[in-house]
Design a protein that fits this description.
mainly alpha, globular, 5 strands, 6% strand, 22 helices, 5-stranded mixed sheet
């Protein structure tokens, strides 16, 4: 098998395609209760906007398109994520094939993405916007190295498209193209690629992609920035305390994003580490500079901008290049890649099997330990309770908890869902005796819900001439829960 992958490195894409098909099957086979990001996507897929909240909208746009074509379903959510991740591995493989002479190392580098926890596990578990940055990062690396090696209008266009997509996927993505630009300017061999007229194509395409959201961003600056800054910066700490906290969290984040990869690759190339350390090539130099510039830029943000909370997933697009960089070092040292390929295939197979098993069983093992997860919350039973009460489907569902609201959208796909925290979306709906407005809420721990939340719902009542509804509280058993364990919801039915 080792020799087969060495002779035909493209076969690893067939393996990965099968792997993501299994991920799709696994997600469809476990409860259709949604995680946080999944619920947000289901809620926001009801309408198209140039911006929604503190997260850029690229993934929302694509999910809106997929949902419009495929329908409101768990399948449409999972299909997009698995497809985008598979394309990420594909573009990473193409980048490795461009920059590595040894075909065995092309496979090792591609499988290296499996060693990044935020890519192999967290992205599959719930993340969405981070999945978009993984895709954009892989596409950018492919376009960037293709431009350096064999520049063409297409390669410059790919860089522009990837930069635009990345910028409207996560704002921190900007560090990757910025670091690549500086690294290329420093290198005398690659500097001429920056001063090529075709760079205008890169700039025009990236601006065209970013511009609609950029205009929205300027008009909603507080909404777009406040939450992000709150996550990244402390609250009035002294300078020394902020800096020490920032560097500690930054180092922890680097260990979280790169630690497993470094340990595994050290084991794979244990006999060649000295030669790899001394080896150098034009590819290792530029890749190494990109990593160092990114690290230096974040360090400056900690020192000068008050940043003290760098999360590991925040670094995901910036450290995607690491497995490829290590394989570039091995390639430049001309190491025998037979043993590393064999070990990499074994390690990759184990990782894929473990991840699939953990994700497939996560709704089952929690209740055994008395620790329920979001997948165990009985949203489907709650939706069925409402249907039985009103004798059909509501005309409108109104909530103020995006996680609950997104789950209701999945389970009642023909009913628009209006959420307090997205006031720009006010859908048209049918309102009559057979199609009332249903208000839904809960305590997020599943305990007794609060009383009628007048603050969130009063406008809908007044604007639609509704009668003040009566509150109903239901206690429903958890999915795969222990006997007697229940989760409580509240709802109220308002008629015209």
């Amino acid at each position: 098998m080792q020799s087969l992958f060495s002779r035909r490195p493209h076969l690893i894409l067939a393996v990965l395609g099968t792997y993501f098909l299994l991920h799709l099957i696994v997600r469809l086979s476990i409860p259709n209760a949604l995680e946080l990001d999944e619920a947000e996507q289901m809620l926001l897929s009801q309408w198209f906007a140039f911006g929604y909240n503190s997260q850029p909208p690229f993934y929302n746009w694509v999910q809106y398109g997929v949902t419009s074509l495929v329908g409101v379903s768990l399948f449409s959510l999972s299909l997009l994520k698995c497809s985008m991740l598979f394309l990420s591995y594909t573009f990473y493989w193409l980048t490795a094939r461009l920059t590595l002479k040894n075909s065995s190392l092309v496979v090792v580098a591609t499988l290296g993405l499996l060693t990044v926890p935020q890519v192999v596990f967290e992205a599959q578990r719930d993340l969405t916007h981070s999945v978009a940055t993984i895709f954009a990062g892989s596409l950018f690396l492919y376009g960037f190295f293709r431009t350096l090696k064999t520049p063409s209008a297409i390669s410059y266009a790919i860089v522009g498209i990837a930069t635009g997509i990345g910028m409207i996927s996560k704002y921190n993505f900007a560090l990757l193209p910025a670091a690549a630009l500086v690294a290329a300017l420093i290198d005398t061999d690659f500097r001429k690629r920056i001063f090529d007229w075709r760079l205008a194509l890169t700039i025009v395409l990236s601006i065209a992609i970013v511009l609609p959201h950029a205009l929205w961003f300027l008009q909603h600056f507080d909404l777009a920035v406040d939450r992000t800054l709150h996550k990244m910066t402390g609250a009035g700490e002294g300078f020394l305390s902020q800096v020490s906290t920032g560097f500690f969290r930054f180092i922890s984040a680097m260990v979280g994003i790169a630690g497993v990869s470094v340990v595994i690759f050290l084991a794979l190339f244990a006999k060649s580490l000295r030669a790899m350390w001394r080896a150098s090539s034009r590819w290792t130099r530029i890749a190494g500079r990109i990593l160092l510039i990114e690290i230096g830029a974040i360090a400056l943000m900690i020192l000068l901008a008050g940043v003290d909370n760098v999360a590991d997933r925040w670094l995901t697009p910036l450290f995607l290049i690491l497995p490829l960089y290590i394989c570039m070092k091995a390639d430049s040292a001309e190491v025998d890649a037979g043993a590393p390929l064999r070990k990499s295939l074994a390690v990759g197979g184990v990782i894929m099997g473990v991840v699939l098993a953990v994700l497939a069983m996560r709704a089952y093992y929690g209740p055994l330990l008395g620790k329920y997860q979001r997948l165990n919350i009985p949203y489907a039973s709650f939706a069925e309770t409402i249907r039985k009460d009103i004798g059909g489907e509501p005309g409108l569902i109104v909530g103020y908890d995006p996680h609950l609201d997104g789950n209701m959208r999945l389970l009642m796909p023909d009913t628009p869902v209006q959420s307090y925290f997205y006031p720009d979306f006010k859908p048209k709906f049918q309102l009559d005796a057979k199609h009332p407005v249903v208000f839904v809420w809960r305590d997020d721990k599943g305990r007794t819900p609060p009383a009628w939340p007048e603050y969130y719902f009063k406008d809908v009542i007044a604007q639609n001439g509704l009668k003040q509804p009566e509150t109903h509280i239901v206690a429903l058993p958890y999915i795969y829960g222990q006997p007697g364990d229940t989760y409580q919801f509240a709802y109220a039915v308002a008629y015209p």
